[in-house]
Design brief:
- The complex is a heterodimer of chains A (117) and B (112).
- Chain A has strands at residues 5-7, 10-13, 19-24, 31-37, 43-50, 53-56, 65-68, 75-79, 88-95, 107-108, 112-116.
- Chain A is mainly beta and 117 residues long.
- In chain A, a hairpin with a 6-residue loop joins strand 7 (65-68) and strand 8 (75-79).
- Chain A is globular.
- With 112 residues, chain B is an all-beta fold.
- Chain B is globular, with a radius of gyration of 14 Å.
- The chains are: A mainly beta (117), B mainly beta (112).
- Chains A and B meet through strand 4, strand 5, strand 9 and strand 10 of A and strand 3, strand 4, strand 8 and strand 9 of B.
Chain lengths: 117, 112
């Protein structure tokens, strides 16, 4: 069974440009999460989808970040315009269980490393 | 792979020794705790979890201990192997059951 896949694995862009990260969750997983780790800091929650609906986007830093999950399958996270402080590793995770029940196991992708110059 | 932060706690052990990685949490409403292992260039990988109604749980070569009184979590790895070298993160869920709060991570280095 394929795991959570993320693309690109590494992106280098200049300040002000736009980047779109993609996540393909494990097939059948309704729950999809985005996390990120900025250099030297903890991994932090960004948002959570249940199917195509945003369940919780309280961790999104600001309105330069836009996440979508059309059709409830793969998800994209767009940063526009990118700033220097957006550099870090963006992780996507998916899980089968529903909110309100046991968290169960989150399966993480390998992350998309974003470098903003 | 992802580089670690300058202030990441580190633990260096000899192969075959037991390792203990510690984590403190602050949310007294947390009721679910997980340990993740992250190898260079990879995403966090689930190791073991524990609920707040337990104080100890054992897996294969790993044991998690939970002390709710002092809000402390530890991961014990028995007979540590070079393949255990990685960054270990604790994470907790505070009632929402889907949003995890991660600790800073500890870099474990196993010397052969």
């Amino acid at each position: 069974e394929a795991g959570v896949t993320q693309f690109p694995s590494h992106s280098v862009i200049e300040k002000g440009q736009t980047v779109t990260l993609r996540c393909d969750p494990i097939s059948g997983h309704d729950n999809l999460y985005w996390y990120r780790r900025v250099m030297g800091k903890e991994i932090k929650f960004l948002l959570h989808f249940v199917k195509e609906s945003k369940q919780d986007e309280s961790g999104m830093p600001n309105n330069r970040f836009l996440a979508e999950r059309t059709g409830g399958t793969y998800s994209t996270l767009k940063v526009q315009p990118a700033e220097l402080e957006d550099s870090g590793v963006y992780f996507c995770a998916s899980s089968q269980v529903l909110p309100g029940t046991a968290t169960g196991e989150l399966f993480f992708g390998e992350g998309s490393r974003l470098t903003v110059l | 792979g992802e580089s670690v932060g300058l202030h990441l706690p580190t633990l260096s052990v000899q192969e075959g020794d037991n390792s203990i990685i510690n984590c403190a949490y602050s949310n007294s409403a947390s009721d679910y705790f997980i340990w993740y292992k992250q190898e260079s260039g990879k995403g966090p990988q689930f190791i073991i979890d524990i609920r707040s109604n337990m104080d100890k749980r054992q897996g294969q070569r790993v044991t998690v201990l939970l002390n709710k009184t002092v809000k402390h979590l530890s991961l014990q790895i028995a007979a540590t192997q070079p393949g255990d070298s990685a960054v270990y993160f604790c994470a907790e869920s505070g009632g929402s059951n889907y949003k995890l709060t991660f600790g800073k991570g500890t870099l474990l280095t196993v010397n052969p």
